[in-house]
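From the pipeline queue, job 12 of 40. The input is one protein chain; the requested action is below.

Action: predict structure.
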Amino acid sequence: IHFYKRMSRMRLLPMLVNRVTCSPLMSTISSPITMVARASPSFSVLQHCRCASDKAAKWKIWKSKEDPVTMAEEEELSEMELYQQQVEEMEKEAKAEYIQSKRNKSKLSASDRQILHGEPPYQGLMFEYNSNHRSKEFKRSMMSQYGVAKTGVEPGIAWPTDKEVALAREWEELYQDKPLIEQIKLAKRNIEIRKEERIAREKVVEENLSKMDVQVKQWKQRVGTKNKQAEAARDMREKVLAELKLEFGYSVNPEDNYMKERIAEREKVLAKEEREAKKAAKKEKSAAFKSSA
């Protein structure tokens, strides 16, 4: 694409050069000569050579309001300056394109670089190389991805033709168990069922959350009673081991078979004593309550 741009600019150069011919201009008083050299093929800027006596206004003492020679010179100079500006702009653009081409270190193609920068590729839109690029599916995908303004694809291509609609109906009748309308209704019904199930599940969760405080309190009570029982059993075991240490004079091994029997017997005795103590305390408490009543 850059090559075609440069070639089109080079074709404009001869047309502009032929417009400005190298012609001497003679003044009325002195001889101011303006020589214009043609541009070289290598985009060199036009060089114009003028003598020191080209300013006729300084040499003329009485000058008319409108000098045709001076006006012609000014018109020619304006054309030359315009042409010079155009040549400089073309040189700047060519240099910028050259620098941009050197910056392309990835060596990607133009289409791949367009895709990398989020723009539509040239391949398939500007240049259609195969049947896939000319297919409706490809055009639809490009239009849906990059839009109508960037791709230039006609939006009407997204709609199926009458032939495609008839073929789709035939395929539906042949390969599908139910028509499309019934499938849509079934899908909507499934969505409603899932919504109802979710609402019911959320309702159960809300009810459980309302009972959570009571359940947490009950759980803490159960854990507390278990901890108390475990602590009481540990205290009883320590008490039995202390009594056996006093009896034998040394720390006994609770894993020994004989010691296991002695520890179990002693724990039964202590548990019986504890139960009797609780019963006695309960009787005393009930007697005190009756006496007070």
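Job complete. The radius of gyration is 53 Å.
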